[in-house]
Amino acid sequence: MxxxxxxxxxxxxxxxxxxxxxxxxxxxxxxPTGKAGPKGGVEGRLTWFDRQGKIVGxxxxxxxxxxxxxxxDGRRIAFERADPQTQNRDIWIxxxxxxxxxxxxxxxxxxxFPTWSPDGKRIIFTSNRSGVYELYHKASNGEAPxxxxxxxxxxxxxxxWSPDGRFLIYYSLGQPTHLRLLATAGAADRKSVPLVDPExxxxxxRFSPDGRWLAYTSxxxxxxxxxxxPFDPASGSVGKPVTITNGGGxxxxxxxxxxxxxxxxxxxxxxxxxxxxxxxxxSARLQTGSPxxxxxxxxxxxxxxxSPDGKRFLMPVPERDTGANP
Length: 326
Known about the structure:
Blueprint: H1 2-13, E1 42-50, E2 55-70, E3 76-82, E4 89-95, E5 101-103, E6 111-116, E7 122-127, E8 134-139, E9 147-150, E10 156-161, E11 167-172, E12 179-183, E13 193-194, E14 202-207, E15 213-218, E16 225-232, E17 237-238, E18 242-243, E19 249-254, E20 260-265, E21 269-279, E22 284-288, E23 292-296, E24 305-306, E25 312-318
Antiparallel strand pairs: 1-2, 1-25, 2-3, 3-4, 4-5, 6-7, 7-8, 8-9, 10-11, 11-12, 12-13, 14-15, 15-16, 16-17, 16-18, 19-20, 20-21, 21-22, 21-23, 24-25
């Protein structure tokens, strides 16, 4: 089990999936199982930043936070946090408007990487409760128990659910990591297919809001860059990649209307890239503007998630950096 945890952490540390994650004070070994804490866990608060990098709000009380995802309608946040008493790592759901927070999982295993369904009614997440990081799902209102969604011999982490609800992108936790496409319907041990040649490292796959494009990080061009591929939602097939960054890029995320992609440049700057996409049965075309720097993300950023309108970015940061009173 310890080996599996270490492998998972190594894969996560290079992924940059759904949140800004700052390498800060990590949880020390301990808790009910005596396992080492998650690499990159942040003792701090979930914090909102605007496009200029100004802090515009905080969420929840201080704690040890890691992965998170904003719901498609922008009204809720699903996040991974360590229980302050047991240090068990579970998923919680926060309602932005009312400020209510509800515990979503409570299994002794490690639950992480919540991924919302397109209608916001379900959440898929990964858990090592069986010894391998399998995928589970549960109604987002918490009124039914979680169920096994997908199992295989390798560990895996979900990254994106297609807008039509038919497909899921996940990445393997082996080295190199690679993206795979999975039908959401079928037996728990159904087969998945690779989205990028497994000889290359690929990660952080995201469906576009219209479901006709995929954005991801890969070294298939010779270095780590952001690529976009056309996607046929009817057949689940992908087209040829178009590299949209030059000089390094990772952790792509679409604006809610699909007209912008945000990503982190090699020097840690948050970038915005305007897109003009056309995808029909006859052709798939992609036009991009010039990348625009927004603000310098603090050193060690791994994961992040933008609001659907692209005006705010949510991330966990050490409380000393939020301006909160001691």
